[in-house]
């Protein structure tokens, strides 16, 4: 589904991604974790070309997405992305936020787009907020709208870049509940998160990064109980003592 082949990324002299080789299978839930500044968000943002790479290849369904001649808009329509900040249009209703891309990109009619929007808002528990505006919602509700908006394009893969980091603690659970539901339905998901309880419950596999490198790959049980790399051991120990 997604394959990283010797991917490198620099910001000036800073080597942000170092020879990353990784693969995500269809239907797999992969959590990317590690200390701040380890390259987690940079990695996930390369998958829909929000970040360019300096060398290597990234394949999605066999297509080299950083190759020449790639239609970026078409690519992004097939890769759902949920950001830390919700990035909703404040002047549009909740329903309109979810509808917009389906009408502009998928060319759905107004009725088709609204029906899709309402179905997805029902899925994330916000059908009763369809006529509200983002500023009238809590942070957790806004993030659930952002998830519904990403799902509206029917993407085969969803990327989450620390989707709960901007939320108050009491709002985190409602967003994680929606993500757990997606995982149980077989959605391919790659998620950068500090929510290690969620990772333990939902992930098929964890990828641990530090200093731009993937240092460890393991099942949640193996990672939390028997981390191998010294940096991973310190990371897990810090979690236990937090």
Automatic annotation (TrEMBL):
The keyword ATP-binding applies. GO terms for molecular function: ABC-type amino acid transporter activity; ATP binding; ATP hydrolysis activity. CDD domains: ABC_HisP_GlnQ. Residues 2-236 form the ABC transporter domain. The keyword S-adenosyl-L-methionine does not apply. Belongs to the ABC transporter superfamily. This is ABC transporter family protein. The lineage of its organism: Bacteria, Pseudomonadati, Pseudomonadota, Betaproteobacteria, Burkholderiales.
